[in-house]
Amino acid sequence: MQIxxxxxxIIALSTLEMFQVEPGVFPAAGAGWLAVSLAVYLLxxxxxxxxxARGCIRRLRVAAGLPNKVLxxxxxxxxxxxGWVLLGLAGVMVCGGARWISAHLAHLPLLDKLAAMxxxxxxxxxxxxxxxxxxxxxxxxxAGPAETLTARPYWxxxxxxxxxxxHHVLFxxxxxxxxxxxxxLLALFVPQWLxxxxxxxxxxxxxxxxxxxxxxxxxxxxxxxxxxxxxLPDGPLRANLxxxxxxLKLKVRExxxxxxxxxxxxxxxxxxxxxxxxxxLSDALLARMNPREVKAVFAHEAGHILSxxxxxxxxxxxxxxxxAAVAASAAGVLLGxxxxxxxLLAIGLVAAAWAFGFGWLSRRFERQSDVTAAWAMSREFDxxxxxxxxxxPEGAASFAVALQHVARLNGIPAEQFNWRHGxxxxxxxxxxxxxxxxxxxxxxxxxxxxxxxxxxxxxxxxGALNVTLFMLSAGV
Length: 476
Known about the structure:
With 476 residues, the protein is mainly alpha-helical.
């Protein structure tokens, strides 16, 4: 849902900016028409979410266990719902939302942007509220009695909404809001400071890039508080994990426990630079997995850091956005289309890049981290120099067991395909095959290395073209 929230914010802000630049392309709708479009948007969202959840619960009741077929049906329905949430939001903004916000809130820094995101957030919470019974039923069926995460039932509705708010809304909205606030304040004060100076545009651009970069670098410090984390206490586990960091030459600021109420068995890493980099291990992961399994999961997260996957994910986003902007501008010049059509084209291109390109890239990143984890666990069983990149059968089996255990604890069917991670079965099969054949890290490193080179090329081309367009528009 984080991607949906992010795309929804882009749609809300893009339509708001389109109205401010070219108001004539929007219908002259009054407050009454805005109220009608907003009501239709939320009512259709409510009806569709209710039908989807009830249908999935009905299929779950007549099935034994947690069939993959039911999960696939739920996933397809969820994709349709998300598509409606995004398209309906665009409709609300076009049918009066952008006009009303611009008329009443445009002079208030950040508040107009938050108002534009309001319909999106309302729709998202409606979907969560109505889908909660299915998630609860599926979660309680996800494992047998020996594998239940805690002795108490699944989250209450309030806990479920609180968790989603922190991890899907505030995780995106807090840093994005800080960047937007900085942009509004710069737009308010920079022209006053520099008057009509020709350098104003360049100062504004440099200040925006600098403030956005600073927010992104420091965002982990904010997120570890939004997500409710605490320091992993001193003890054998912390000592072992820090020793692994030393062996891997991995710099982190802190190891923290990610508090999920005992419901999430997972780990994560955030932060581009060592001084603001955190590794998170969830409470359920620490409670339900043995130390060797925790080390294997930790090694997987270390693989993401060592291969700079966070940085290259950001590079992908910048390159995709930059190329989409150039393509949209070219369409506007060559085809003579209106600015609002060019912006819609840019949004569509960015969405396509994320749907297809980032999914492929993310799955390769996961495989590279899987292999790194299996290689690191191989060193636990067999003292070999770091130059030996081979994965041993013992190291492969150690990581495979940990990965399967995480899947069971989270109720993830081994066959279920995930857009960002692939399926558990395929990941486990590849690692075990690698260990049995004496394979190493070179194959996946070559694939990811080629992808990284392509990202650099795309980023540099996008940057050069956008700078050229900016200079031409500024009359330089």
